[in-house]
Design goal:
homodimer; 283 residues; alpha/beta; Spermidine Synthase, Chain: A, domain 2; Rossmann fold; 2 domains; seven-stranded mixed sheet; five-stranded antiparallel sheet
Amino acid sequence: MALDHTWYTEQWAEQGAAISLKIRDKVHDEQSTYQRIEIYETETFGTLMTLDGLVMVTDRDNFIYHEMMSHPALFTHPNPRRVLIIGGGDCSTLREVLKHSTVELAEQVELDERVTRVAEKFFPDLCASNDDPRARLHFADGIEWVARAAPGSYDVIIIDSTDPVGPAAGLFSETFYRDCLRALGKDGIVVGQSESPLFHAELIRSVHRALRSAGFRDVLTLNFPQCTYPSGWWSATLAGNGRPLATFREDDVAAKRVSTRYYNRAIHTAARAAPQFLDELLR
Amino acid sequence: MALDHTWYTEQWAEQGAAISLKIRDKVHDEQSTYQRIEIYETETFGTLMTLDGLVMVTDRDNFIYHEMMSHPALFTHPNPRRVLIIGGGDCSTLREVLKHSTVELAEQVELDERVTRVAEKFFPDLCASNDDPRARLHFADGIEWVARAAPGSYDVIIIDSTDPVGPAAGLFSETFYRDCLRALGKDGIVVGQSESPLFHAELIRSVHRALRSAGFRDVLTLNFPQCTYPSGWWSATLAGNGRPLATFREDDVAAKRVSTRYYNRAIHTAARAAPQFLDELLR
C-alpha cells in the first residue's frame, strides 16, 4: 500500500528498496552551507535527523552504530589517549569515546557546524559530553585536518562520515588513509564506517584495498545491525599497523567501566566474523 | 516522499516503521484457505513472496534466514538423521537441511499446501530438493503433528513459522515446546525463528521462559541480519537437553561439505553473542 505524508521515507534508489518511519511532526528544516538538515519527531523512533534526505540518527537505534564505531577501536588500542573523530557532527561518537578513562583529548572535526548546533538542540543526550574538558569541537574539513596533523599525533582516528558521495567521498580514498597512517602513533588504529555488507560489499572490498595500499598491514571489518541504515545491516572497517587487530583488551571490556547497550566482549568478538560471501570476496 | 504503487510496502504498524521494495509486476495473487499469497517481481530483490501482506521470501536475501534456521542446529547435534520442519512452505529450509549427508529423513509439515505449490512455480531454486528421496512433504497442522509424533522420533525440529499471531501463535507456546521435547531423541534440538531483537526483545524473553518451563535446560538465541524482515535484524532460538548448545561440530563446518553463502564456523560462533541489552533482559 502507498504511504502518505505522515511517513518519512528514505529511498535507496540503486537498491530498489526504501525504509519509512511514521512521523508526528517535522520540527526543524534548514539549508546549511553544505546540506539540508531536517529534524522529525517520529511515532516510535524518537527524534530523527536527516541530512539531504538520508537518515543520520534516530533516538531509538543510534546506540548500535555509535558504540560499534568507537569501542572496538578504543578497546583494541593498548592505551588510547588522543582520539580524532572526522565527521560525527551529532556528537554521539564523541560521547562514547569520552566514556574511556584513558582518553585525554577527543577532537571532533565536523565540516558543518550547523549539524552540531541542531544536534545540541534536538539530541541533548547525544551531546551530553560536549562540555567535557577533554573534548574539542572543530568545524573544518576533515581531509585537510588530517593532512596537516603532526605525525603520530593520534592513537585512534574515527571516520564517522556520511556515504561515499559528495564531500565524504574523499574519506574513502587511499590518499586520505595514507594521511591517517602518518597522523597515527605507534599501535594507532583508524576505523571508518564502511556501509552495508549486503548492499555495498564491493565498496568494503575497495576500502580494504585502499587501506592496504596506503600502508596498513592489518584490516578488519566489523558487522552489526543498524535498523535505519540501508539494508538494516552495517559495517565498520578498522586498520592498524601495530598489534594485531584480532586481539583486544578483553578484561577491560569485561570490567564494564564503559556503559553500553549493544557492545560487550562477546559482541566485539562476534562482530569480526565475516559472512561466507564477504569472506570469499575479501580473500 | 510518498511511495507510489510501483512499490510494495510492508508496514510494521506497532513499530512505526515500514520497508518497501520497488516492483516491476505482481505475477500471482490468490486467497488460499488460510491466507493471501502474492508474488511480485521486484527491481533488485528478485522474486518476492508475501503472505497476508507480509514478506516471507525474496530471492536476494532469503539465504541468511534459511541457513541460520538450519545449519547451526544441525551442526550442533552430533548426528542429525531425522529432521522435522514445521512451516517452511517455501521449501528453502528443507533444501538447506538436505545438504547434510547425515540426514536420512527430512519431513516438512506445512499447513498451507498452496504456499508450497506457488513456491515450486516461482522459486524453483528454493524447491530444488523437494524430490530428494529423503524429503517428505506433508500438508497438515504442525502443532497436531508434533503432539502425535512418537516419542524420540526426531533429532532436530525446526519451527520455520510466520509471526506469533493467528495460526502460528501456538508455535510459540509452552505446550507446543513440551510436545517438541517429547518428540525429540537424545541430544535433540528444537530451533524456532524468534523475531527481531530490536523490536521483539520481550518476545524473545517469553520464548526463553516457555522453553525452560517446557523442560529444556539449555536455551540459546542466535542473531543475524535479515534485510526484508522487520528492523532488518532477526533471531532464531535453539533449545536442547543434551550436549551443551555452546559447542558444535566445528571441524565438520570447516570441512565445507555444506555449501553456504552466509553461514560458516566464525558466523556460527558469532551469532551466539547477545547484545548487552538482550543479555541483561535474558539474564
